[in-house]
Amino acid sequence: MQISRKADYAIRALIYVAAINGRRTCSINEIAENEKIPREYLAKILKELTQKGFLISYKGVNGGYRMAKSREGISFLDILEATQGPFVLSSCNQDYKDEPGCKGKDACASFDFWDELHRKLKGIMAEMNLGKINYDKYYQFADTKDKVTT
Amino acid sequence: MQISRKADYAIRALIYVAAINGRRTCSINEIAENEKIPREYLAKILKELTQKGFLISYKGVNGGYRMAKSREGISFLDILEATQGPFVLSSCNQDYKDEPGCKGKDACASFDFWDELHRKLKGIMAEMNLGKINYDKYYQFADTKDKVTT
């Protein structure tokens, strides 16, 4: 049940931009360098996150990215679903009519179990947002407070 | 984040045996037929679940499987970890020293976030056990109460 590499990179990139928190734009290069994310792949992810309303993209000399929402407005579930699609635990959480052996939810002993488990896990993931991170830690080992490298 | 097919089959097989709840043994054939699980694959899964203490296997004419523990004694987390290995959400939940870009937990803003998320999700999965299923539903559409087919 490990999250995808794409979701992992998206989360790390967003945490980085959230740490800067609007003081200035963040360039692709600095995010790629500080988070050790391959630049080309990161560019695609940042473009998608911009299209989906997580980031605002600025062009030009001081171009880069800023948060489009507050930290509290972005949950782990938001990022996961933006990068991996709807959160699904088992075939019970999808259109079950296609699943061999599926008895349909009225006849299935485990439907309620899956449904409750899915709801609870999704709830936890929706509660965990970027506002719950201690960003002070982010600067402890940086040379400069804003970690500007390029 | 969908669970593996193996974990899915293991859960369905265990729910089936838990529904019978010790009144008699359950044969591989009836589990395979009622849950639409490929027999050969199911045989391997049941053998593993027996080795790992979830089931007891009986040989002979009335051979088959029974629960080795109470329903409450088997959680979703138990079954998941028995079939998929330790629950891991991101590389932060593993030996982080190997992960490119990893700053180590003392310097990382997101370590605490991942740690808390992982703990909460794991907690939910440990709470959800086979005792929380309504087994009455299991027999609603069966021809016979014990669903014996072979």
For the structure shown, list the relevant keywords.
homodimer; 150 residues; mainly alpha; two-stranded antiparallel ribbon; 5 helices; elongated; disordered C terminus
Fraction of residues in H or I helices of chain A:
40-55%
Largest sheet of chain A: 2 strands, antiparallel
What separation lies between the terminal Cα atoms of chain A?
Answer: 36 Å
Q: Please list the strands of the largest sheet of chain A in the order they lie side by side.
A: 1-2
DSSP helical segment count of chain A: 5
Give the H and E element order of chain A: HHHEEHH
Strand content of chain A: 5-15%
> Which spans of chain A of ≥5 residues are poorly predicted at pLDDT below 50?
140-150
Which structural class do you get from the secondary structure elements of chain A?
A: mainly alpha
Query: What is the subunit organization of this protein?
Result: homodimer
Which whole number gives the mean pLDDT of chain A?
84
- The beta-strand count of chain A equals 2
Could you say which overall geometry of chain A the principal axes of the C-alpha atoms support? elongated
Pair with the biggest interface = A-B, 45 and 44 residues
- What Rg of chain A do the Cα atoms give? 19 Å
Give a description of the structure.
The structure is a homodimer of 150-residue chains. The longest helix of chain A has 17 residues. Chain A is mostly helical and 150 residues long. Chain A contains five helices and two strands. Chain A is 42% helix and 5% strand. A two-stranded antiparallel ribbon of chain A has the order 1-2. At the A-B interface, helix 1, helix 4 and helix 5 of A face helix 1, helix 4 and helix 5 of B.
